[in-house]
Amino acid sequence: MSLVQTQSLTKIYGTGETAVTALDHVNIQINAGEFVAVMGPSGCGKSTLLHLLGGLDRATEGRVIIDGHALTDLSDAALTELRRRKIGFVFQFFNLIPVLNATENAALPLTLDGLSPAKAKARANEWLTKVGLGNRLHSRPDAYPLNCAWPLSSTG
Asked: When comparing pLDDT for 146 and 97, which is higher?
Protein backbone atom coordinates (compact mmCIF):
# COMPACT_ATOMS: atom_id res chain seq x y z
CA MET A 1 0.00 0.00 0.00
CA SER A 2 1.33 3.45 -0.86
CA LEU A 3 1.69 6.07 1.85
CA VAL A 4 0.56 8.91 -0.42
CA GLN A 5 -1.68 8.51 -3.43
CA THR A 6 -3.77 10.76 -5.63
CA GLN A 7 -6.48 9.67 -8.00
CA SER A 8 -7.44 12.07 -10.78
CA LEU A 9 -6.62 15.02 -8.52
CA THR A 10 -7.92 18.29 -9.95
CA LYS A 11 -7.99 21.80 -8.54
CA ILE A 12 -9.71 24.68 -10.30
CA TYR A 13 -9.66 28.21 -8.92
CA GLY A 14 -12.51 30.52 -9.92
CA THR A 15 -15.42 29.83 -12.25
CA GLY A 16 -16.51 30.48 -15.80
CA GLU A 17 -14.16 32.40 -18.07
CA THR A 18 -11.86 33.30 -15.19
CA ALA A 19 -11.39 29.68 -14.03
CA VAL A 20 -7.78 28.53 -13.75
CA THR A 21 -6.94 24.83 -13.67
CA ALA A 22 -4.00 24.49 -11.30
CA LEU A 23 -3.97 20.66 -11.36
CA ASP A 24 -5.57 18.53 -14.05
CA HIS A 25 -6.28 14.88 -13.13
CA VAL A 26 -2.94 14.19 -11.41
CA ASN A 27 -2.20 10.61 -10.38
CA ILE A 28 0.77 9.90 -8.12
CA GLN A 29 1.82 7.10 -5.82
CA ILE A 30 4.53 7.40 -3.19
CA ASN A 31 5.62 4.33 -1.26
CA ALA A 32 7.39 4.02 2.08
CA GLY A 33 11.07 4.88 1.82
CA GLU A 34 10.77 6.84 -1.41
CA PHE A 35 12.16 10.34 -1.70
CA VAL A 36 10.17 12.67 -3.95
CA ALA A 37 10.98 16.21 -5.09
CA VAL A 38 8.23 18.40 -6.52
CA MET A 39 9.86 20.69 -9.07
CA GLY A 40 8.76 22.99 -11.86
CA PRO A 41 8.44 26.59 -12.95
CA SER A 42 6.50 29.19 -11.03
CA GLY A 43 2.75 28.73 -11.42
CA CYS A 44 2.82 25.08 -12.49
CA GLY A 45 0.86 23.81 -9.45
CA LYS A 46 3.58 22.69 -6.99
CA SER A 47 2.16 24.55 -3.99
CA THR A 48 -1.39 23.59 -4.93
CA LEU A 49 -0.40 19.92 -5.03
CA LEU A 50 1.34 20.12 -1.65
CA HIS A 51 -1.59 21.97 -0.06
CA LEU A 52 -3.96 19.27 -1.30
CA LEU A 53 -1.67 16.43 -0.17
CA GLY A 54 -1.41 18.03 3.26
CA GLY A 55 -5.14 18.54 3.65
CA LEU A 56 -4.75 22.33 3.78
CA ASP A 57 -7.06 22.74 0.78
CA ARG A 58 -9.83 20.67 -0.82
CA ALA A 59 -9.71 19.29 -4.36
CA THR A 60 -12.25 20.28 -6.97
CA GLU A 61 -12.26 16.68 -8.14
CA GLY A 62 -10.40 13.45 -7.37
CA ARG A 63 -8.99 12.01 -4.18
CA VAL A 64 -5.98 12.25 -1.90
CA ILE A 65 -5.21 9.15 0.15
CA ILE A 66 -2.69 9.40 3.00
CA ASP A 67 -1.70 6.20 4.79
CA GLY A 68 -4.95 4.54 3.67
CA HIS A 69 -7.20 7.46 4.65
CA ALA A 70 -9.06 9.35 1.91
CA LEU A 71 -8.89 13.00 2.98
CA THR A 72 -12.31 13.73 1.44
CA ASP A 73 -13.88 11.15 3.79
CA LEU A 74 -12.50 12.73 6.96
CA SER A 75 -14.26 15.18 9.23
CA ASP A 76 -12.46 18.43 9.99
CA ALA A 77 -11.43 17.05 13.40
CA ALA A 78 -10.09 13.80 11.90
CA LEU A 79 -8.26 15.75 9.18
CA THR A 80 -6.68 17.99 11.82
CA GLU A 81 -5.53 14.92 13.77
CA LEU A 82 -4.10 13.28 10.63
CA ARG A 83 -2.14 16.44 9.80
CA ARG A 84 -0.86 16.68 13.36
CA ARG A 85 0.26 13.03 13.54
CA LYS A 86 1.20 12.01 9.99
CA ILE A 87 2.14 15.10 7.97
CA GLY A 88 4.91 17.64 8.44
CA PHE A 89 5.33 20.93 6.64
CA VAL A 90 8.28 23.21 6.13
CA PHE A 91 6.80 26.40 4.76
CA GLN A 92 8.72 28.79 2.53
CA PHE A 93 7.86 31.57 4.96
CA PHE A 94 7.66 30.64 8.62
CA ASN A 95 4.26 30.31 10.21
CA LEU A 96 5.17 31.06 13.80
CA ILE A 97 3.20 32.95 16.41
CA PRO A 98 5.11 36.21 16.86
CA VAL A 99 4.36 36.66 20.58
CA LEU A 100 5.72 33.18 21.44
CA ASN A 101 9.39 32.30 21.69
CA ALA A 102 11.01 29.36 19.84
CA THR A 103 10.32 26.88 22.64
CA GLU A 104 6.69 27.98 22.98
CA ASN A 105 6.13 27.82 19.21
CA ALA A 106 7.67 24.34 18.99
CA ALA A 107 5.79 23.09 22.07
CA LEU A 108 2.38 24.37 20.97
CA PRO A 109 1.46 21.47 18.61
CA LEU A 110 2.58 18.96 21.23
CA THR A 111 0.40 20.62 23.86
CA LEU A 112 -2.56 20.70 21.46
CA ASP A 113 -1.99 16.97 20.93
CA GLY A 114 -2.44 16.35 24.67
CA LEU A 115 1.13 16.36 26.01
CA SER A 116 1.51 18.19 29.31
CA PRO A 117 2.96 21.70 28.94
CA ALA A 118 6.09 20.74 30.91
CA LYS A 119 6.77 17.65 28.76
CA ALA A 120 6.02 19.59 25.56
CA LYS A 121 8.49 22.31 26.57
CA ALA A 122 11.17 19.73 27.41
CA ARG A 123 10.72 17.93 24.09
CA ALA A 124 10.70 21.23 22.18
CA ASN A 125 13.93 22.32 23.87
CA GLU A 126 15.52 18.94 23.14
CA TRP A 127 14.72 19.06 19.42
CA LEU A 128 15.52 22.73 18.97
CA THR A 129 18.92 22.02 20.50
CA LYS A 130 19.42 18.99 18.22
CA VAL A 131 18.86 21.15 15.12
CA GLY A 132 21.28 23.83 16.29
CA LEU A 133 18.85 26.32 17.80
CA GLY A 134 19.71 25.74 21.45
CA ASN A 135 21.00 29.30 21.74
CA ARG A 136 17.64 30.65 20.48
CA LEU A 137 15.20 28.83 22.79
CA HIS A 138 13.86 32.10 24.21
CA SER A 139 14.04 34.15 20.99
CA ARG A 140 10.85 35.31 19.33
CA PRO A 141 10.37 34.99 15.54
CA ASP A 142 10.60 38.76 15.08
CA ALA A 143 14.02 38.94 16.79
CA TYR A 144 15.81 38.89 13.42
CA PRO A 145 14.94 40.47 10.06
CA LEU A 146 13.54 38.02 7.49
CA ASN A 147 16.44 38.57 5.10
CA CYS A 148 19.08 37.97 7.76
CA ALA A 149 20.60 34.54 8.43
CA TRP A 150 20.46 33.48 12.07
CA PRO A 151 23.77 32.59 13.64
CA LEU A 152 23.01 28.93 14.39
CA SER A 153 26.08 28.03 16.41
CA SER A 154 27.10 29.36 19.77
CA THR A 155 30.31 30.63 18.16
CA GLY A 156 28.47 32.39 15.32
From this structure: 97
Q: Give 73-79 contacts, CB < 8 A, sequence gap 24+.
A: 79/55
Q: What domain range is 65 assigned to?
A: 4-86
* In a shared domain, residues 104 and 71: no
| Contacts with 65 (C-beta within 8 Å, 6 or more apart), sequence order | 2, 4, 5, 6, 7, 71
Average pLDDT over all residues of the chain:
87
Q: How far apart are CA 149 and CA 28, in angstroms?
A: 36
Domain containing residue 33: CATH number: 3.40.50.300
pLDDT at 103 over 50: yes
- Cα(51)–Cα(46) distance, integer angstroms: 9
Residues 6+ apart with CB under 8 A from 28: 4, 5, 6, 9
The side-by-side arrangement of strands in the sheet containing 20-30 is 20-30, 4-13, 61-66, 69-70
CB atoms closer than 10 angstroms to residue 123 = 15
Please give the tally of structural domains in the chain.
2
Are both 81 and 26 inside the same structural domain? yes
Query: In whole angstroms, what is the distance from residue 33 CA to residue 101 CA?
Result: 34
Q: Pick from 36, 68, 86: which residue ends a domain?
A: 86
